[in-house]
Amino acid sequence: MDTAGTSVNAGLYDIAERVLPGAGLGGYALPEDIRFVFAEGAGARVTDVDGRQFIDYVGGAGALILGHSPPAVVSAVQEQAARGMHMFGTLNEPAIRLADRLVKDIPCAEKIVYATTGSEATAYAMRLARAYTGKDLILKFEGAYHGNHDYALTSTFPTRLGNDPLGQDDTAGRPAGTRRTMCVAPYNDLGAVERIVRERRDELAGVIVEPVQRIIPAEPEFLKGLRRLCDETGVVMIMDEVVTGFRLAYGGAQAYFDVVPDLASFGKVVGAGGPLAAVAGRADILDLSDPRRKGEPGYVYFNGTLHGNPVAAAATLALLDELARPGVHDALNRYSAQACAASQKVLDRHGVPAIAEHTGSLWQIIFTRGRPRSHADMLAGDSAAMRRLDMQCMKQGLYVLPGVRRFFSLAHGDAELEDSLRALDQACRIVA
Ligand SMILES: Cc1ncc(COP(=O)(O)O)c(C=O)c1O
After folding, report:
1. CATH no., domain 71-323
2. What angle, 0 to 180 degrees and rounded to 10, lies between the N-to-C axes of helices 310-323 and 93-105?
């Protein structure tokens, strides 16, 4: 792949270099020889501005569970956009209908509150837990991602381990006061959580957990143990379902694992790729934000220009109609299992010491010794080899961000699997 010379990619990158830090839109800057500018997506494939096609496994960071531009969602967006794209300060019908649907379909949801992004939803869930308990401390897990705010950026990418219960800063510019309100434990280690809860019970407001932490699934007893510990101590259990919500199963990971948290954050699939996210949970906690309580002690402020945006709400309703069809998640998860098994065969054939790991439709090729249980296991793996293979996969036409977990969508089919296995085979041949 070559983006040099007179291609449209190259011209646009020249502009991007000038006006965007690192010529990127956020956390990722692709090396010069594989970067491309997205032009359009259809189903599981994306095309760049020079007309090159890729099979998309980034899937809008997991938002695009139906693939790109599914007709039912596009129609819903067009219809609503023609009637009005935005409304603030009062209700709109799609937002009410979606809230009603989420309350029916999410096990923990007695009520929901809208947000715009997953980060906003996790920040708000933490604020609610603090207000509800009157305490400050939130426990998160090493290696867990909960978004881009100062509270979340604790030990998300720690390079040293064994530093729990104190977290590490993931970013400069984080106030020391914020750091002191967070602590961390190793994932899937109930004993460590129990120790922290016992020692810091008087300070602890909440525990926030990803039910599948990046690519590592919670062990069956871990989430149940967290639920029990929170019940025993009055700590608010927050499940971060921004990735897993309506992806692992209809209703989310709480339906899949059968563990009901007090609060849960949703985004990505909830939002259908548009500006919408939500916090779902217990009414007695969410009612702290009842605007009629403004000015009273205990009132929790939460508000946003785009909250309950009618276009994103209409898109999400259309998407949920598709996902609610019988057997949809079973088919997607089965496809994922088959694709990972077939990828494993390719890796083994080339003697590449990697695992094609998946939980439901979340997957990644990782270079760890056995299936990882914690961030420590991920760190002990060969991340340089993982990135090398991912780069080669990109060069062979698979859109996978190097070292980043990826997604199957309902638009991936036999043709994509066949083409992807061929690309992986070629990538393995080159790196092996
Ligand atoms: C588990 C989890 N929580 C929160 C977020 C933040 O969501 P957003 O990027 O919409 O702010 C992400 C984003 O990837 C996520 O994976």
Report:
1. 3.40.640.10
2. 40
